[in-house]
Amino acid sequence: MNSVSYHFIRTHITDHVFYLTLARPGKRNAFTPTMVNEIRHALQEANTDTAVRVVVIKAEGPVFCAGMDLKAFENPEADTLNPDITNTDISLGAVIAELNKPSVCIIEGDVYAGGFLIFLECTYVFAKQSVRFALPEVRIGIFPFQVLASLLKHLPDAKAMDLCIRGTSFTASQAHELGLVTDFVENEDDHKIKMLIADLIMGAPLAIRKGFEALKQIKELAATDRYAYLLKVLHELKDSEDAKEGLAAQRDKRPPEWKNR
Known about the structure:
10 strands, lyase, ClpP/crotonase-like_dom_sf, enoyl-CoA hydratase activity, Enoyl-CoA_hydra_C
């Protein structure tokens, strides 16, 4: 991957896993335009790196993310620009949603406002039971419009709106009941997370990527066109090196050696 110095995040790769850590704990990991673009740059690298099979997102400090840094968004001079990154106006939710690889979000601190955009777009979400979640925007005269779009991927309209218009906090247990949290963990080294990552790495990376791409595409297609599209991509995948390797490995009773092509 390209060597870029980030101001607000840290990244590294270990054993096919790309780790992205929010690293602005002094500001409760509130994101600025530059921080959003750093996250986008890092995740684009992870998306295109064939060695990366899983993306893990976590955070430093007692707060996972307090949402957007309102001062930096209102006044660009309050932001710290990164000369290695080109800033574009993009939603943090859209940045995470661009991933075509399994993503695991580990939440060890409270989440507020726009911080929801990160975990709501991840494939799996693990949280400590002490974590609290809140969308307080309506209490300061604004509305979590972008979070609403992400919530609607998980909840019925009325329930998503309820979380947005009450402005009250709720527990990790309540988030789990709503289906927003996959499971509870004590820390990022929890056995549950390690077992999940091990399972994800065993799968054919090309097939998984094609699955994520198909999930996004079928939402844009008419119902009458979906199965024809899915049949087409299945035939394309069957001709891949990984599909042939998977069948050969099954026949030979050995672990497959994935090439991601």
